[in-house]
């Protein structure tokens, strides 16, 4: 998911769109949106900047198989 998509998610959540409507707008599955919001929300809600940082951190620390 790109940072621009994360900003779209945040804006659509703010105006009261459902996760299914957000998924339709972004052209992805509603489970993807659900997982994104669940993984990257905290007590303050969904923050796209923080979500992107968390995602990058997960990607860089993921196990990588070596030959």
What does this structure look like?
The protein is mainly α and 67 residues long. The chain is 67% helix and 6% strand. The protein has 4 helices and 2 strands. A two-stranded antiparallel ribbon has the order 1-2. α3 packs across α4 (48-61). The chain is globular, with a radius of gyration of 13 Å. The model has no long low-confidence stretch (mean pLDDT 92).
Describe the SSE topology.
Elements lengths: L2 H12 L4 H8 L3 H11 E2 L2 E2 L1 H14 L6
Antiparallel strand pairs: 1-2
**What are the secondary-structure elements, in order, as H or E?**
HHHEEH
Classification by helices and strands: mainly alpha
Low-confidence runs? none
The largest sheet has its strands arranged as: 1-2
Question: Major beta sheet, specifics?
Answer: 2 strands, antiparallel
For the termini, the CA-CA separation is 28 Å
What is the count of DSSP helices, taking H or I runs of 4+ residues? 4
**What integer is the average pLDDT?**
92
Q: Radius of gyration over alpha carbons?
A: 13 Å
What is the count of β-strands?
2
Share of helical residues? 55-70%
| Beta-strand fraction estimate | 5-15%
Global shape: globular
């Amino acid at each position: 998911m790109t940072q621009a998509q994360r900003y779209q998610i945040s804006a659509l959540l703010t105006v009261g769109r459902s996760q299914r409507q957000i998924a339709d707008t972004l052209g992805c599955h509603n489970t993807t949106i659900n997982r994104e919001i669940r993984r990257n929300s905290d007590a303050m809600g969904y923050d796209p900047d923080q979500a992107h940082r968390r995602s990058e951190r997960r990607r860089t620390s993921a196990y990588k198989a070596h030959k």
